[in-house]
Amino acid sequence: MQLFHCPFCGTRDETEFHFGGEAGNIRPDGADVPADRWANYLYMRDNPKGAVREVWVHMNCGEFFVMERDSVGHEVVSSTSLDGAGHAR
């Protein structure tokens, strides 16, 4: 069992969380976006080995936040609310 830290509720079991995607993957804006740009947004991921920044949601409270973690050792470095309002771990 892995423990994640919700910036709003504290440390909880990983089963209470859902992965939301890479942090910084910005949705293209506008109706005239080329198909290859939509495909890149939807399907292409960096998948780095090591430090990553990801968006997660705590299913119990419904809050989204950014988690920084190591993708190799699964160590959580920090969890911060999306508004950056000082809920860092």
UniProtKB/TrEMBL annotation:
Q: Per UniProt, which keywords does this protein have?
A: Oxidoreductase
GO biological process terms held by the UniProt record: tetrahydrofolate metabolic process
Per the UniProt entry, the Enzyme Commission number(s) are: 1.5.3.1
Highest taxon above the source species: Bacteria
- Its recorded name reads Sarcosine oxidase subunit delta
**Enzyme class (EC, first level):** oxidoreductase
InterPro entries, alphabetized: SoxD, SoxD_sf
A GO molecular function annotation here is: sarcosine oxidase activity
Natural source organism: Aminobacter aganoensis
